[in-house]
Amino acid sequence: xxxxxxxxxxRVGIDExxxxxxxxIIMNFLQSAGPEDKVQQLMAALPGAAELLQGDSGGGGGLGxxxxxxxxxxGNMMGAMGAMNELNAAGLxxxxxxxxxKEVIAFAREKAGADVxxxxxxxxxxxxxxx
Length: 131
Description:
With 131 residues, the chain is mainly α. The protein is built from 8 helices and no strands.
C-alpha cells in the first residue's frame, strides 16, 4: 500500500497518515459491502491490502461497515455515506474524498484490472455517485 499512499500524498496533497487511514476506510467498506469473491480477487491484487485490513484496529469498517452490513441496496448506500462520513472525520473535505476515491479506484484498476474493479463497484448500489 506504500505505493498508493505515496500517490495520494503527491496527487491529492494529504499527509501519509490521512492517506493510510483513507485507504483503510475505503478497503473496509468495499470488503463489507462488495461481492466476496470479487473483493477477495481485488484485495489479492493490491500489494499490502490484506495486511492493511488485518492491522486495522477499527475492525470491520467502522460506521461504513456497520451500515453496509444492513444488507441490500439501502444498507449499502447507507454504508457508502457512512464511509464518506468517516473520510470526512479523518480530515478530508468533500473534494479530497472524491479525489482520494478516484485515485484508489484508478490504482485498483491498474493492479487488479478494470473488469474486477468495475464488478465490485457496480455490485454496490449508490457507490458510483460517490466516485
